[in-house]
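Translate sequence into structure tokens.
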Amino acid sequence: MSVRVKLFLLLLVLSVLPVLVLRISAQFTFQELSQDLVQRSWHRTIVKTKDFMRLMVEDHAELWRREGLLLEQTMRLQASEVERTLAGQGREELSHAYASSARDVSDKLFGQITVFEDGQVVASSEDVRLPRRFDARQTVWYRLAVKEGGMIWTAPVIDPTTRRVGLTLSIPIRDASGRILGVTALMAPVEIGGLSNEHTQSLSANLKTYLVQFDSNDTSEQGLHIIGEPGCEKGEKDDAKHGVSHAMGAGRGMLGLAAPGWLTPDDPAERELILSDLNNGLSEVRQVRVNNTDWLWAYAPTKLKGTALILAAPKTDITADATMASEYIEGRFQRQRHLTFIILVAGLLVVTLTAWLVSRSFTKPITDLSKATAKLGEGDFEVRVVPEGGRELKELGRVFNEMGPKLKDHTRLTSAMALAQEVHHRLLPAHWPDLPGLDLSAVSISCEEVGGDFFDVIPGAHGHSERTAVLVGDVSGHGLDAALLMATARAFLRMRAHQPGSPAEVVTSVNRYLTMDTVGSGRFMTLFYLEIDPVADCMRWVRAGHDPAILYNQALDGFEDIGGPGIPLGVIEDRVFLDASRPFLLPGDVLLIGSDGLWEARSPQGDMFGKDRVRAILRQNASAHSKDILDALMAAFKEFKNGSPLEDDVTLMVIKSASLEVS
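Result follows.
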């Protein structure tokens, strides 16, 4: 991806991201505000509606109770008047008794009727037409009045004159001895006590009122038994709309019970709560679900023979204003989204154009730097750029122009280091010569590319074929200068070891030569120089400031330091070194010559490897070949370091007698 594209994308993100964040934040804010307003509006509307419906249904329940009491009083007066007329004048004068007893409520009645035990029916109006073979004694209101012996409310029935649904109030009539002669009844329209349209329309056009009976035997299963529906002359077509169910069809019989209607909530628990309230004489407003539709029911007991008034309104009508408010808010929110989208698109166009123009001014010097960097990576250290652009880009161009020569010098130095490393490795013996009587192994590890540690094996020392010179040296410091001093010392030692003399004379001569090169530099070298003659059973050595060699005596199972006096080489020019001697190794003995980089090494936790650990490994592997002993030391050292870098060069040489038969 080019710099211009990256810059364009960066500007795009920086410009668009804040807009998107603000837009998302505004969206959540609008949604929360909309939901809060709608919820508050719904809650306030429902609370006010509940209060209004409760007040309305309680007032009209009280009105119905009073009118019902008036009808009951009228019914008692009619029964008394009928009984008096029968006792004095006979059945022919009953019409006068009807007119006399019901004159105060005649405008609220369909009519009056008396049914005698012999089946004769005397009505309040000559317009009443009874069906042929109709026996009024089989009506529910007749049978219940006779059975209960008192006043009975039954409904709804069809008035024989108006063919309208009404309520029936019936009571038995008796002779002087108390024997029941028949039943007299009043039929009143359901509109008695109905709620006015002016009030109901203010709530909902679909509001419905019911007069129900809540103490019927079937209410626990069916719900509330509908006694009357004020204004039900519109017919049954509205019943299903308002959650009313009719058992066994919708037909009504002449002067008999209509097919029973029920108000049944979907949830039995809601039905039980409503019945409990009514039985306890409480009025309440509840949200009820009927036929999977939510309604608000306001109900109040009339305190008249287990009856109550119910005002039912669809919840959707009650919350219509809140719904309209929600839709209005959502519409405004949608318009705001469209406006934000237009602004965002316009912003994208402006950002795109700006990014393109700005990227052209920025990317030219960056492109030049990119091309020059590619050439520099290919090894063209002479490549240069013309610093241009802003201050930072000019500074970058200047730094780039300075980087080429530095990289050239670094590359040259790296090549020199690689060459020095190769020379260093070549100076170490690649393979061992045939050394009769000796089992010898050595290794040298540098902590940098090149180091100052070295070891060497010089067979045929001083012209004696049975004599072998071995040595381990450690030049102070690390790096290229230490490697150069090491190479010089190695050359001096090889040259002098082939000339006549003793180990002490060899080291003394090499010190004199080396001091000429190190004077004033602060450089020096420690050396352990050992000459071995297995035939003569003799070892002679010089310790020039180096750590003593470690000798393990298998016969005594003990250790001995092979040391002696001596200072490092390259310090004092005329220093005379002395040598020491002892018999050659016995079978099973192990001699270790090493640099301090092994036992002074530290673990990642800061612990020192130490000579005790070295001695334990030598004792444990004394019966093995020198190569196996060396491998055991290096394996323990690697585990000890656990991947941490070396602090110093490590050089080790293990010497054993070749006459040992390894088990």
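Note: The first strand starts at residue 111 and ends at 116.
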